[in-house]
Amino acid sequence: MNNSELLNIFEETEALLNGHFLLTSGRHSSQYFQCAKVLQYPQHTTTICKIIAEYFKDFDIDTVISPAIGGIVVGQEVARLLNKKFIFAERADKDLVLRRGFEIKEGEKVLVCEDVVTTGGSVFEVIDIVKNSGADVTGVGIIVDRSNGKVDFGVPQMSTLKMEVVSYLSEECPMCKEGTPAVKPGSRKI
Ligand SMILES: [Zn+2]
Predict the structure, then answer these.
(1) Is residue 46 predicted with pLDDT exceeding 90?
(2) What is d(CA 140, CA 110) in angstroms, rounded to the nearest whole number?
(3) Assign residue 144 a region: left if phi > 0, alpha if psi is -120 to 50, beta otherwise?
(4) pLDDT tens for residues 168-177?
(5) Considering only CA atoms, which of 53, 37, 47, 75 is closest in space to residue 158?
């Protein structure tokens, strides 16, 4: 699976939209990415997660963990492919925490999986949970790195796709200058 085959899957499933978008930040962009759109299709989830599982197959891993909600499907599938345990951290008030009886034991080797990373905030939080349990972070596997490789988790990390987030203030937006209207993603069929 090369980059263009992967991009095709994201475009076919409308996970990756090209156009003129008004982002929630108020900025404009020519691309919009919603990973859940591709993960609607289990066969695509398997295809993409195989790339992550293949990368980490010779690493020392006991458990795969993901931040809820976006990462759960990814971590579950990577854990299934590697035949490891899977748990997730979820937000209670402000912080990500382990609930539902999930535990990480001292010395456990843990792989962190996430769907999309932009600043990496949730992944850094999960890394802290693992370290505070006295366990070791084996690595981080991501479907899409929207920081284009700028976020460094300080452990072996890989992403199936790296993308640059290009966005503009409305007054500097080249698509606005061309006169096309900016649309909110999901507000109409593109
Ligand atoms: Zn614009």
Answers:
(1) yes
(2) 9
(3) beta
(4) 999 999 999 9
(5) 53
CB-CB contact of 48 with 143 (8 Å): yes
Dump pLDDT digits (tens) for 136-151: 999 999 999 999 899 9
Secondary structure E strands in 15-94 = 16-22, 28-33, 63-67, 85-92
Q: Tell me the three state secondary structure of residue 161.
A: strand
Taking the centre of ligand 1 as the mean of its atom positions, its distance from the CA of residue 23, in whole angstroms, is 10
Q: Which residue has the higher pLDDT, 98 or 190?
A: 98
Rounded CA separation 188/72 (Å): 28
Q: Name the burial class of residue 13, with classes exposed (0-12), middle (13-18) and buried (19+) by CB atoms within 10 angstroms of its CB.
A: middle
**Distance from Cα 160 to the centre of ligand 1, integer Å:** 29
Neighbours of ion ligand 1 (CB under 5 A): 28, 173, 175-176, 182
Residue 77 has pLDDT above 90, yes or no: yes
Token pair recorded at residue 97: 């925490």
Say how many Å lie between the CA of residue 177 and the centre of ligand 1.
7
Residue of 173, 170, 163 whose CA lies nearest to 34: 163
